[in-house]
Amino acid sequence: MSSRLSVEERRAHLIEAAIGLAEKKGVAGVTTRDVAQAAGVSLGVVHYCFENKDALMTELVKALSTELRESIDTNAAIWDGAGSGTGALRELVRAGLELLWQNVESTPERQMLSYETTTYALREGEQTPAKLIIAREQYTFNDATVGAVLENAREATGTRWTTPVTSLSRFTLNLIDGLVLRWLVDGDSAAARTQLDLLAELVASKAE
């Protein structure tokens, strides 16, 4: 890796190396030395960019969550010409969920890694409470992503939520988590999309 890379570029390179390793050998099996070797840098470079493995894992989680959010942000045109009313809201929420789902289907290894980082943080957190930050960062960011989808849909259709959007986003993310895990088990995309239809209808029922 070129010595002329900025610190942020180095960090991004190391995070991508860590993701590749974690997909192959699991989060628990990844060491900072492994990451240094995979990235082609010295161990000192890794520790210059990240205080320790936990700091690296926290940024790995953020990177995975950012990919999910960008799957929607890069398709901002879905908010244009949506129409108005709860019917239009339902269609728009479903369109946003579809963009999320397309990202899921195209990255099954990363979806499994996302679950693994959560369980890793929870298991390790029993001995090191600070590790819980990894899982909490993950869900805080994903809640914000789903909340942004719901708020964009509401604004575009001139509707208002009758339930706090924070509760709706949390509920929606909980169901998406279950859908993704079930899909990883059975690979039934048609069934998953049927569930997304039901989810969009349920969410839209909480607006007027």
TrEMBL record:
Residues 31-50 bind DNA. Transmembrane segments: none annotated. Keywords: DNA-binding, Transcription, Transcription regulation. InterPro entries: Homeodomain-like_sf, HTH-type_TetR-like_transc_reg, HTH_TetR, Tet_transcr_reg_TetR-rel_C_sf. Residues 8-68 form the HTH tetR-type domain. PANTHER family: HTH-TYPE TRANSCRIPTIONAL REGULATOR BETI, HTH-TYPE TRANSCRIPTIONAL REGULATOR RUTR. This is TetR/AcrR family transcriptional regulator.
